[in-house]
Amino acid sequence: MSSISRFMETNFRHFNARETLDAAKAWNDLLGRGGKMFLTMAGAMSTCELGISLAEMIRQDKVHAISCTAANLEEDLFNLFNHNEYKMVPEYRDLSPEAEKALYDQGFNRVTDTCIPEGVLRQVQRRISKLWAAAAEAGEPKFPYEYMYALLDQPDIAQFFQIPEEHSWVLAAKEKGLTIYSPGFEDSTLGNIFCAEVMQGHVKSHNAIRTGTEQMEVLAKWYTEQGKAGTPIGFFQIGGGIAADFPICVVPMLIQDLELEDTPFWAYFAQIGDSTTSYGSYSGAVPNEKITWGKLDIDTPRFMINSDASIVAPLIFAYVLGW
């Protein structure tokens, strides 16, 4: 057993620590019986550089599909292309409104202690815009991640990288051929830029981007294929929101709306979050609530870890990887 795994086995015995270890063990159990893991990400996980460990999970076939906010999708590439221009603000809790305005005037957007330069991806924005424009002109729309993959496939693109390639989870996903679902693309920097490009006439129409319901159809077909093959699919959720609620609903959709009653429930569920259960939010809903919605079964392994995903997720990944 490796040092991190041994530490967790020795010390993580109670409360959220025990839940963290149990979730990691159950992940390995799922993979051990031929299962696959579907991972979802909300929050600013790419900005906190979760890709350092997540990319290795993808490369070692521990993660098989991803749903994330479009911000997480793009921010992995922002970090890949612009890491050296980021600014750290360790004293972020003490910033005055005037200090925040000073950061804005310097061209920074703050995410907790990390300031993303406003000019992120400007050096390749023209390339993405050309991809959007060509797709709109040809009437061949694509999903957001497909444009990211096409960008990363350009032969001279590596000259812009500012971090090791192995730290980019999107690059690892592209190399593995994973599908990345990003519902709500318009709620992102690139979504805003795309809209502006259409309004300025640089991109012919909004039809360059395939819709969210098309993403659901692709997911439904993939999930059905796995079920027919007898492959159990787990669901590992970081945060909540649309990144998680969108994909987990594929099961009740298949059972209730398409009336495919032999559809298997999700075979594993774990969530890292800090939302309060009493506010009626999806993010704070305990796993048992998902049984009433037809997402999980009564015997589905379920874990709710109330903690900081930037700390807990890398630990779980390390355990699953045997580090």
From TrEMBL:
Swiss-Prot/TrEMBL keywords: NAD
InterPro entries: Deoxyhypusine_synthase, Deoxyhypusine_synthase_sf, DHS-like_NAD/FAD-binding_dom
Domain of life: Bacteria
GO molecular function, one term: deoxyhypusine synthase activity
Gene3D superfamilies named among the record's database cross-references: Deoxyhypusine synthase
Pfam families, sorted: DS
GO cellular component: cytoplasm
Family the UniProt entry places it in: Belongs to the deoxyhypusine synthase family.
Record-given protein name: Deoxyhypusine synthase-like protein
Organism expressing this protein natively: Solidesulfovibrio magneticus (strain ATCC 700980 / DSM 13731 / RS-1) (Desulfovibrio magneticus)
Organism lineage: Bacteria, Pseudomonadati, Thermodesulfobacteriota, Desulfovibrionia, Desulfovibrionales
